[in-house]
Amino acid sequence: MTTTIEFTHHHRFVPATTPGRPPILLLHGTGGDENDLLLLGQTIAPGAALLSPRGKVLEGGAPRFFRRLAEGVSRL
C-alpha cells in the first residue's frame, strides 16, 4: 500500500545523497523564500538532506516565520 502525503505549506526538500548525514533545516530571513538558502545548505553540508520551508506570516507582502507586534517585539 502506498501512502501519499499532501503538504499545504510551501517548502523545498532535497533528499540526502550521502547516507548518515544529518538533515539541515534552512530558515530564510524576512522577505526570502524556500529557495534562498538551498545553495548555502549544499555548500555547508554536501550530501545532507535539506528542508527549506517558506514563512507563513506576511508582513508588507514579505514572508517571515513570526508576527511582529511592534518594532523589535515578536510573537510566534
Mean pLDDT: 87
Tell me the series of helices and strands, N- to C-terminal.
Answer: EEHEEEEE
Which structural class do you get from the secondary structure elements?
Answer: mainly beta
User: Strands of the largest sheet, in order across it?
Assistant: 1-3-2
Approximately how much beta-strand content do the residues carry?
Answer: 25-35%
Q: How many DSSP H or I helices?
A: 1
**How widely separated are the two ends?**
38 Å
Q: Write down how many β-strands occur, each being a DSSP E stretch of 2 or more residues.
A: 7
Gyration radius (Cα, Å) is: 15 Å
Indicate the overall shape.
elongated
Secondary-structure blueprint:
Elements lengths: L10 E4 L9 E2 L12 H7 L5 E4 L3 E3 L2 E3 L2 E4 L2 E3 L1
Parallel strand pairs: 2-3
Antiparallel strand pairs: 1-3, 4-5, 6-7
Protein traits:
76 residues, mainly beta, three-stranded mixed sheet, two-stranded antiparallel sheet, 30% strand, elongated
Structure, described:
This protein is mainly β. The protein has one domain (11-75). The chain contains 1 helix and 7 strands; from the N terminus they run ββαβββββ. It has one helix spanning 38-44; strands at residues 11-14, 24-25, 50-53, 57-59, 62-64, 67-70, 73-75. The strands form 3 sheets. The protein has a 3-stranded mixed β-sheet, with helices on one face. The longest helix has 7 residues, at 38-44. It is elongated, with a radius of gyration of 15 Å. The model has no long low-confidence stretch (mean pLDDT 87).
